[in-house]
Write a structure and sequence with these properties.
alpha/beta; Rossmann fold; four-stranded antiparallel sheet; 10 helices; globular; binds adenosine-5'-triphosphate; binds magnesium ion; P-loop_NTPase; nucleotide-binding; amino-acid transport; Branched-chain amino acid transport system ATP-binding protein; branched-chain amino acid transmembrane transporter activity
Amino acid sequence: MMSLEVEALDSGYGAIKVLRGVSFSIAEGEVLGVLGRNGMGKTTLIRALSGLIKATSGAIRLDGEDISGLQAYERARRGITTVVQGRGIFPQLTVRENLEMGRIAAGKRPRDRSEEVLSYFPRLGERMSQQAGTMSGGEQQMLAIGRGLMTDPKVMLLDEPSDGIMPTLVHQIGVTLKEINKNEGMTIVIVEQNVPMIFNMADHCIILEKGALVAKGTTQEVSQSDVVQQYLAI
Ligand SMILES: Nc1ncnc2c1ncn2[C@@H]1O[C@H](COP(=O)(O)OP(=O)(O)OP(=O)(O)O)[C@@H](O)[C@H]1O
Ligand SMILES: [Mg+2]
């Protein structure tokens, strides 16, 4: 539902520069896959987009408006939700409470999305009263995505949703994300080490190497290019 344009983005941690001149754009309703080896700046990119860290220069435009000066909560109110690496759910709270936290986190009172969330992830519906920390890794990931959906987002940023999850479930989560993307027209930026998952679901891909883009194009272009061999070692 919203386009995102990143132009000459530099960001990092204090004196440590990580992202260098990163530029790409995503049309509304598209899926962008972000690939790259460990430590190449993928999570840093997600943090810079969500507002957890500041851009030192460059622009981040949401539907044409530069949001790079906004705080994380202000970006969340504009419809950006983040499913962080390691999931970031509240382990002591129940599934129901975690989902409700998603709704509260949106700041406003978004329309109640719980019915759709449970239709995408029926397993959550069977576990509404279970303490989230006692669920399997895959179920916790579904909950993290479900909680993000509860904010009624326009853009979802996902950081390695396949992390620590068995292959069949990874496939299923990928299929469900694509379904959500199609049904809701939700723009998705997804960071992954799981290259097949990205090649299956992304419209466009970028590859990050030491904080800079070394590839950018349609998934077909990137997947057939030599850079995959060169920078992803597969
Ligand atoms: N809080 C921080 N303070 C200082 N440096 C950091 C911080 N977080 C990350 N870095 C550094 O920034 C660089 C990029 O890290 P980042 O977490 O973005 O990589 P990544 O591509 O997500 O890796 P992974 O695949 O392992 O998750 C690394 O060199 C890392 O050490
Ligand atoms: Mg990371």
